[in-house]
Amino acid sequence: MNGGTVSDVKRELPFVSIVGMTILLLIIVWFVKGGSFRLYASLFFGLYFLTHSSWISIILVSVVQNILLLPMRILYERYHDDIKIFENEVKNSKISEQQLLISNKVRQGSGAVIFYVINFVLVIIAFFSAGRVFLLEFYKTPIDIKYLYPFIHFPEYPLGGVIFHFPLVDITKTMAVSWYWIFYVWGALFVVMALVKLLWRMVKPLLSKNEKLLGVRINYNRFLVLTGSVVGTIIIVSTIFLRNIPMGAQIVWWSADLAEQNTAFNIVTAVCTALATIYSGWQHNKIETQEARAKNISEDVIEKVNRIHMRGTVKNAIMLGLFAVWITRLMPSSHDLSVLAFEACYVLSPVTFDLLIPRKKKKEEAVEEVV
Question: Which controlled-vocabulary keywords does the entry list (predicted)?
Fold first, then answer.
């Protein structure tokens, strides 16, 4: 007879957590055993079999990767609100508490957090593996057949389409504005901006409750964010431009051997990386601003946060650009082309891949931007 003895009941992991952790473990094992490298190598040579061009195949690898990751992006949109809450919790917690927070979410069976972790690992593996593939010189030296799936046709060597041609602007003649006028104009602009800012502080209280002038306030704050956060960069770039104003230019076609390092290609990659970083930061800032206005957060607070974010974005862009110049000089040009292809896919995503992702209707309508 059971005398009613109370026993400790072990808490079992929810089914979704077990499935999620199993999938994550399989992905990690697959990656460690070289599965991701084999996938990308096979993808490249499969595309090469169809195109017979190395540079076209490199670009298509980026396109195919975006298509393959579309299901993950659709799921990300599905869990967007829950992921946003989780990210805020992580951001507001101490570093020592973040691991415990994630662990607790997994034990609770949070599908959003489990997906978030799996998606993060997959994206890291994808970009690492793609970059690793194009670090190898297999354009003139035959690749080991063990890295290809059995159904992938082994190519004939040397590979075709190894020379990539890209246009650059060659400045043939320049003129320089005198330092006197440069300092004079910049001084005048600073005085005007200071007066405008002072005037705005005087009249802003009168406009705070005027709904009709809300657009003016929003556009003014946006202007301050775009200029105030990057004023140092604007001064440096504009000064260089004024001292080297192009008076004559021509389009020249440069050639890069994808199996070799190319300095011009390295510089192009660095500039595009910096621009893509700024674009990414601006897009993120735009979304955060819309969400903040939907929550009726003060415009002053939004302006301050945006300025901090944009300043950080520009700094990151400069650092990434400089790092790109340094690191790509140690790599073949095929890596530059793959990076540019990934960045192009990202920038064009809103008018291409994003159109295939169903969007959830927001519970709160964001405040419309005034153009």
Answer: Membrane, Transmembrane, Transmembrane helix
pTM exceeds 0.85? no
Q: How many Cα atoms sit within 13 Å of 176 on the Cβ side?
A: 6
CA dist 267 and 318 (Å) reads: 13
Which are the contacts of 262, defined by CB distance < 8 A and separation ≥ 6?
254, 256, 333, 336
- Give the integer Cα–Cα distance in Å for 143 and 368: 54
> How far, in Å, CA of 73 to CA of 83, rounded?
13
* Number of domains present in the structure of the chain: 1
User: Which ranges constitute the DSSP H helices of 80-178?
Assistant: 80-92, 95-107, 111-133
Nearest to 45 by CA among 150, 181, 184: 150
Residue 240 falls inside a structural domain: no
Packing angle between helix 95-107 and helix 15-32, nearest 10 degrees?
120
Longest CA–CA separation in the chain, Å: 102
> Which structural domain, as residue segments, surrounds residue 21?
12-163
pLDDT level of residue 23 (50, 70, 90 thresholds): very high
Q: Which residues contact 221 (CB under 8 A, 6 or more apart)?
A: 299, 302, 303, 306
Judged by phi (left if over 0) then psi (alpha if -120 to 50, else beta), residue 161 lies in left
Domain assignment present for residue 51? The answer is: yes
pLDDT in tens, 235-252: 777 888 888 888 888 888
- Tell me if 359 sits within 8 A of 74, measured CB to CB: no
Distance from C-alpha of 22 to C-alpha of 312, rounded to nearest angstrom: 38
Closest CA to 340 of 273, 278, 248: 273
In which band, very low, low, confident or very high, does the pLDDT at 4 lie, cut at 50, 70 and 90?
A: very low
Does residue 213 belong to any structural domain of this protein? no
C-alpha 26, offset from chain centre: 27
Report the C-alpha gap between 321 and 271 in whole angstroms.
6
22 near 118, Cβ under 8 Å?
no
Say if 37 falls within a structural domain. yes
Question: What gap in Å lies between CA 1 and CA 23, rounded to an integer?
Answer: 44
